[in-house]
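Write out the bound-state structure for zinc ion.
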Amino acid sequence: MSSEHTKVPHTELISVIKNVLAQEDQVVRLIFQKNTGEKFLYPPLDKMLYLNVEKVIEILDYIVQTGFMDKKAVETLRFCPVCFSYEIIPTEHCPNCSSTNISRGRVIEHFSCGYRNLETVFLLNTGLECPRCHKQLLIEGKDYSRGKLMYKCHACGNLFDTPIIDYHCQKCGEYFPIDELGETIVFHYEVKNGKLEGIKSTLRMLESIDANLRENGYSTKYCTQVTGSSGVAYDVDLWATNAEKRDSILIETYLLEDTISVDEILRLQALGYDLGAKKIVILTYSKLDQKAEYLANYYGIKRIVPEKTGEVTKEIMVELI
Ligand SMILES: [Zn+2]
Ligand SMILES: [Zn+2]
Ligand SMILES: [Zn+2]
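---
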């Protein structure tokens, strides 16, 4: 199983999730202008986190892939390609002369003279009368037929099934076919309700472990990069050191995966080795698969299951330091 570390840096993932959870409705809106390819986020997570917009979208799409968020296209807005106004009204035109002076109705055909037109043209107070030969139409099926709904052009007299639809800009007055209009698609990224609590309590727990370690004389680095003795910089969730106690703790959270694989344990072990970590701790509700469990025990990597309240218990702190 692939792990989130290989795709999306942990620290960026956590920053995005935290900012999503800070929204009242826990929704991120992506406004995509199809013609120009421009993308905007609301809230503007890209600007808030100093990441480019594509990167944030990649992270959001990754969260969707893991099943913690849904992505839905909620709206398609069309706009005038000349003046960019959203005030555009669909208008129906005659396919023959392109007049907008058309109406719709049932088509009546008078059998004896062959005249065809919309029913309204035959209607008199007394009943139906043929406007061409002025005979009364009495029995449907014998004198005349009442057909399907059609359009009639009052400019050229054309009868037709489907009009041409154009869009009329109310601001600049131009007409456009639909494929020439600008198009903005609004997507919503929404956290799935059932998944919320676990993420929240894991993040709260990480923060309170951070605070507790600092109270106990540790210096900590929270969701940032730390450089190992090899010179390689790593994204880590929490890195705590205490020179006096000669202690150092690496804490990694797993928010989205179902199970943690052996590859992830190997990565953590190598990371811990390069940082010179005395202890490695995994903070997660996710289970380790059988091999990963074995290897974690072998390396002395501990797993802490977050408390629902996000508070750190004394027992956990005793275990940690
Ligand atoms: Zn007639
Ligand atoms: Zn016409
Ligand atoms: Zn316009």
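---
The chain is about 25% helix and 35% strand.
The two ends are 32 Å apart (CA to CA).
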